[in-house]
Each structure stands twice: as structure tokens, then as C-alpha cells.
Amino acid sequence: MKKSAAGSWLRAAICEQRRAKKLLWRVGPAVLVLGLAVPLDAADDGASIQDLYAAARANDPVLGAAKADYRARKEGVPQARAALLPSLSMGGSTSQNRRSFPGSRIDIDPNSPSFGQIFTIPSQTSNSHGWNAQIRQPVFNAPSWFNYRRAQSLSVQAEHDLENAERNLIVRVARAYLDVLRAQARVEAARAEEQAVKRQLEQVQQRFDVGLVAITDVLESTAAYDASVVRRIQADGDHDVFFETLKTITGVAHESVDSLDSALPIADPEPNDEDAWVARAVNSNLAILSAREGLTAARRGHRAVRSGHLPTLSAAISHNYSTTGGTELIASQSEAQSYVLSASIPIFQGGALWSRSRESRHNVDRARQFLQERESTVIRDTRNLFRAVVTDVVRVQARIRAIKSAESALEATQTGYEVGTRNIVDVLQAQQRLFQSQFDYADSRYNYVLDMLQLKLSAGSLEERDISDLAAFTDPSNPVVRIVP
Predict the structure, then answer these.
(1) Closest to 216 in 3D by CA, of 225, 204, 228, 227
(2) What is the reported pLDDT for 120?
(3) Cβ contacts of residue 436 below 8 Å, gap of 6+?
(4) Mean pLDDT (whole number) for 188-193
(5) Closest to 254 measured CA to CA, from 33, 83, 48, 455
(6) Given a cut of 70, is residue 3 above it in pLDDT?
(7) Residues 6 or more apart in contact with residue 159 via CB below 8 angstroms
(8) Burial class (CB in 10 A: 0-12, 13-18, 19+), 12
(9) How far apart are CA 102 and CA 327, in angstroms?
(10) I need a labelling partner for 179 at 20 to 30 A (CA). Which of 131, 215, 270, 447 fits?
């Protein structure tokens, strides 16, 4: 009778366990596969990726430094142009002059009433002042002209660098956002695994209590449960870390973000031609364009140094006025205007010009090598990213099949354990493979999004519109809420 009762209880427990497992496998994958986050606490709607990007544009210190650097480098153009434009200078002076005559004199004019008298000559004070103005215009100055052209190239390079920093911000925001979603998927997988292993442990304990399994099954289940708890704690901690990383970029402590919807299309790059993407990158990649302008600037700088041995020609007009006060004998007033055309020919400057010429030539070689390195790196990265995106598309489809296979494998292993052909370790491993497959699917989707954005960045076609396109496939109704340890 006891044996029959135990058998009935076992059959009921097995049926209940199967129903629970089927419900778990149906609900768990849906949560993870769609990348939806179940809020742990009540919270407002999450921030969209457009909100994150807008906050990053306003607060990101890296972009802020790039903007300041751009504004500073743009000032090189008016500074270099000033050497080609007229210059006006004015000056003035004023002084007080005092003349004294030490000693006395005797009037020696016999016809004078004061003949023979002694007189003291008083001191004399006078004021002098004057001003001058000059306007000078360079007529021929080859170094100044090439330096101006060099400054223009450096200004264009600054524009490319700023635009590159702005487009890099799109990728950095997307990466931080996707890392939060990835962390949420890890949390969901860890918590689902913990709950499943916990139920498994309870059922094994019950079967051990009625003598249906050995103590080793209980110990194996307990060890698996303890390990799942550790993984869940680690996942919770990483969740908060990635929210902090997001705060570093946006400058705002977001408590929740929108999740990624399942409707996001996973498709091959358009055009699906690796060489076309490489050609676009060579012509449009901002790092390459910046390096090309750097080479142009270096060449113009070299020409400016080499032209330092040429004569310079300038014209000047000056006007001078001065006046001196005092007695009629010493008072004066003058005014002059002059027109000057001057030439200067550098002959020998101690070898400095030759040294600067060699230095500028080496700078050209350095800029050329840097451009070659940029082109090689961009071509390599573009090819790798194109292949990564194509692989991501295949991988996402494979992950879906892997989840279905893991579900079937777990169900078969569970049945084998119930009839005695498999042990508890096999069941626990099958459970872990299923949850890992669910996480891998979500992870592969996030990798696809990031790789696609990086491919566009490498090809020079990434725009703010890509953020809007991604925002169209987010789900504000299921925000990912920050887990506070």
C-alpha cells in the first residue's frame, strides 16, 4: 500500500514538474529572446536611445573636448591670414624739458642802464610731444602664403576630426545602451536558472525523502543551486555597473531604459558586397579624410619653410608729427610723411633654414606613413566588420534553432532521469545549456546591431538617422530597470 501511494505521489509530482518545465521553457525564452526586461520595482517609462544620445551630445566630456579642440584649431586660419593683410600701428610721446644756467652774468653793454650789474639767468621749461602712424602691406611673402594655405588644411582636418568624434559618440552610446540590455538578459537567464535549479533541488529532496534517489543527487542539486546563486549575484552586480557606464557618457543617472523589440530586422548589409563597402570607406572614412588633410598641411608647411630663402617685399606709408615748446629760439614744429618700398633677402641664418627644411620634410614623411596606416587599418576593419555582420545574421538564426534543440534535449534528459537512464548531473547540465542558449540568442542580436553601426562608421555612412531607425524598434512598455545592489 505504501509502495502504491509512493508511486501515485511520484506520478503526480512528475506530471506537475513537466507542466512547470513546459511553462518555464515557453515563458523564459520569450522574455530573453525578445530582450524584454521585467521591472524589479515600479518605475516610469525608460529613456529611449534618442534620449540617451541627446543627453550624451550635451554632456559627454569626450565630445566636449573635441568641440573645444575644433574651435581652437579653427583660429589658426585668421592668425595665418593676418600675415597677408595690412597692419596699422600708431605711437605717440610727450616729454617735459627743463634747461638751467648755473652761475651769473655781468651786463657789459656800456650803453645799457644796467651796465656793470650782475644778473642771474633763470631756468627754462618746455614741453615736447609728437605722434606717428604707419600702415604696412606685404607685397610678396611666400612663407606667409604657404602658412596660410597650411592653416586652411589644418582647419579642414579639424572639421573631419570633430565630425568623427560626433559619429563615434553614436557608437559609444549604442554600445553602452546594448551593454545594459545584455546585462539584463544575463540577469534574466541567471534568475530563471536559479529558480529552475531550486525547484529541481526541492523535487530531488522530496524523492530522496521517500527513498527514490540517492544522497548524491541531493548533493549535486545543492551544488548546482549554490553555483546558480553566485551567477545571479554576479549578474545583478554587472547590471548596475553598465548603468554607471551609461551615466559616464550621458551625464544623467538613468534608472531605466527602453528594451529592444523582437521586430528588429536582422538582415545582411546593403549592398551585400564587401568590396563596395571597402571602396566607400576609402573615399568617405573620416579618419582617412583627416589623415589626407594632415598630409596636405605637412606638404604646404614644407613649401613654406623652403620658400624662406626667397626675398620678401613690403610697402609702408608713415606720417610723423612733433612739436617742441619753449622760447622762440628753441621752439619748433615738424610734420613728415614717407612712402617706403622695402625688400629683404635672407642670405645666411646660421643653418637654421636648412634644419627647418629637413624637419618639415620628415614631417611630410610621417604624415604620409600615418595616412597609409589609416587606410590599411580602415580597409581591414571594414572587411572584418562586414564579415562579422554577415556572420551575425547567420548566428542569430542558428541561436533560434539552438534554443529549440536545447529545449528538446532538456525534456528528453528529464524523461530519461525519471525512468533511470540519466542522472541528475545530466539534467542540471541540460538546464544550463538551455539558459545559456537563450542568453546567446539575445547577445547575438545585440552584437548584430553594434557591428552594423560600426560598419557604417568605418564606411563613413553613419548618421544620426541611424539612432532614430534603431529607436523605432525599441519597446517603451517594457523598460529595463536598474538593479541597485
Answers:
(1) 204
(2) 61
(3) 189
(4) 92
(5) 48
(6) no
(7) 70
(8) exposed
(9) 18
(10) 270
Would you say residue 139 has pLDDT above 80?
yes
Residue 351 pLDDT level (bands cut at 50, 70, 90): confident
DSSP string, 347-368: ---TTHHHHHHHHHHHHHHHHH
Asked if residues 396 and 441 have their Cβ atoms less than 8 Å apart, the reply is yes
Mean pLDDT score across all residues of the chain: 86
Q: CA-CA distance, 184 to 176, in Å (whole number)? A: 13
87-140+312-344 domain in CATH 1.10.287?
no
Taking only the tens place, the pLDDT of each residue in 102-134 is 655 666 666 666 656 665 666 667 788 889 999
Q: Which three cell numbers stand for residue 432?
A: 544550463
Mean pLDDT, residues 154-166: 97
Pairing of strands 124-140, 474-481: unpaired
Radius of gyration over alpha carbons of the chain, in Å? Answer: 42
**Residue position matching grid coordinates 525599441:** 474
Place of cell 568605418: 458
**What CATH number is given for 2-78+144-304+355-481 in this structure?**
1.20.1600.10
Q: Strand, coil or helix: what is 114?
A: coil
pLDDT at residue 424 is higher than 50: yes
Query: Which of 76, 67, 68 has its CA nearest to residue 152?
Result: 76
Q: Which three cell numbers stand for residue 385?
A: 566588420
Cα 193 to Cα 29, 233, 407, 418, 457, distances in angstroms: 12, 12, 14, 20, 38
Residue type present at position 11: R
Does the structure show a pLDDT above 90 at 284?
Answer: yes
What's residue 109's pLDDT?
62
* Residue 86, strand partner residues: none
Short-list 231, 230, 252, 235, CA closest to 180: 235
Q: How far is Cα 13 from Cα 414, in angstroms, rounded to an integer?
A: 13
C-alpha 287/C-alpha 191 separation (Å) is: 44
State pLDDT tens for residues 220-230: 889 989 999 99
For residue 101, which phi and psi values (nearest 5 degrees)? Answer: -125, 95
Task: Tell me which residue of 111, 463, 102, 93 sits closest to 286, measured CA to CA.
Answer: 463
Q: Does this chain's domain 2-78+144-304+355-481 share its CATH topology with 87-140+312-344?
A: no
Determine the pLDDT at residue 123.
Answer: 67
In this prediction, residue 43 has a pLDDT band, given cuts at 50, 70 and 90, of: very low
Residue pair 169/250 in contact by the 8 Å Cβ criterion: no
